[in-house]
Structures are given as structure tokens and as C-alpha cells.
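Quick one: C-alpha cells for this chain, please?
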Amino acid sequence: MKPTLLVLAAGMGSRYGSLKQIDPVGPSGETIIDYSIYDAIRAGFGKVVFIIRKSFEQDFKELFINKLQPFIPVEYVFQEIDKVPAGVEISPERSKPWGTAHAILMAKDAINEPFAVINGDDFYGAGAFQTMANYLYALTDQQQTQYALVGYQVGNTISEHGTVSRGICLADENELLVSVTERTNIQYTRGGIAYQDSEGAFVFLKPETLVSMNFWGFTPEYFKQTEPMFSAFVKANTASLKAEFYIPSAIDSLINSSSASVRVLRSNARWFGVTYIEDKPVVIEKLAQLIKTGVYPAKLWK
């Protein structure tokens, strides 16, 4: 059974200033999502599922559905604030979605096979998709809670135009994930790459520090394991306007309870993406270089 690619595309891109998931960066109007899907098809993925917001459904349909259907089946599901367990009342003032782990749960009725999860605004590289596909294809019936993560070096994942958030990963000698801790405000400083702790002090990271870019590999067992977690989370945060249920938090709970393991698939690729509007020219130039060297055609969807 071919794995599915699940694309997290519900974020509105507040730091970027527009709906960055559909902003063209390729020479024929391609978005970063187009390049990810192209790489996924080449790697052997059999379906794409988008997680979006209802408010921009029409934009997504016009840009992706008809274009991609000749090449791979496409579905989409919605992440909305009110998609919470029955009987839970949330603050009417809340406008922020419930986070990446909640987003994945929105796809539980659309996916019945092993699947990979990616961000819609990050470029991961063709090799990462092939590595993940190989892992998912090889899973047996006895390995349905043996998940995977493509790990990147933090020095290859920093924007030159502002801070970023990354999951700082710790792996054991067998390349199994021990923990992943979400860190915000990671940036270049005069002293090197660092993030700010709760006291505002800089904590420095080695460039080769392993980080998560939200490129995960799961099976449908993940839905069963994390649904109760989200129910408990949202019931504990009904009055909150900003609390979010993140993938790293769910993964840490599964690892600590020995309910699942996560294999780290290391990548030396250099990430690029559109966290900030100033990132766009850099993305365009890097894609142009990859096209020039033959990694991608000038027009993806001929």
C-alpha cells in the first residue's frame, strides 16, 4: 500500500504577511507545496491530503485540485477552532487553531495507510521524501507504532530575516528519538545560533544540533493514540486563547509512556522556506539553481 502525504497548510502566515502556502516561487508559478508533492510522487507516495481552513477552500481548490489530479489523488480536510470533543465549550474570543497535533487528527477519516506529515511552507529536498518513503514502505504489521522523523542540522534551517521555531531533538545510540523540545526565537547572533530561554537569556546551539522540521512518518495508530491526549488538552485549556497541542508534545508523551518509538532519519540537506516575506527572493533563487542543475524541470506539471 502506497503511503500518503499529509500537508499542514492551515496556517495563515502572520509573520509572512499573506497566505504563503499558495505564493508562487517557481518559474511557472509553482509553490513550495508543488515541489514537495512532485518529490513525493517521485518517491512513491500514492495520495495527498491537505489540511486547510474553510476560509480559503476555494483558493486551494482552484490552485491545486485540478492541477494535481492527473498525477496523484488529492483530498483536503479542515482544521477549525470548533473541532473539539463534544460537550467542550471554548472561549468565543479564540481565533487561533489548536496546533499541529490537532491538525493531524483532522485527517483521521481520510487516511488508512502509513503517512508522512510536512509543513506546507518548507522545502525539504527530494532525498528526504525518498528516505521517508522507503521507511514507510518497509513497515510491517508488527511495527505500526514505530514512527519516524527526518532530522535536520539546525545550522541548515535558520532564516536570515528573523527568528524561527524548531524542535530540538535528542537521539540515542540506536538513532531512536529520546525527546523533542519545541524552542522559539531561534536566530543568528554575534555569538552563533541561539534561542532565548524563559528568562530571556540566550542559549547557544551547535550548528549540527539535530532539529525537527515537522517531517514525520506515522501509521493510523497515531490517530488512536493522540485523540485522547487532545481531548484532555482541550478540556484543560477551554478558556485559553493561544494554547496549542503540538506534535512534539504528543510524541514526547508517547515515548515517555513507551507507547511508540520514533526512528531518526538524518538529513544533511539545507532547508529553505518562506517564514518571512524577505525569504521569498532567496527561495526563488535556490529553486532556479536546482532547475539549472536538472533536479527539477522548469515546469513541474506538464
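The first strand starts at residue 4 and ends at 8.
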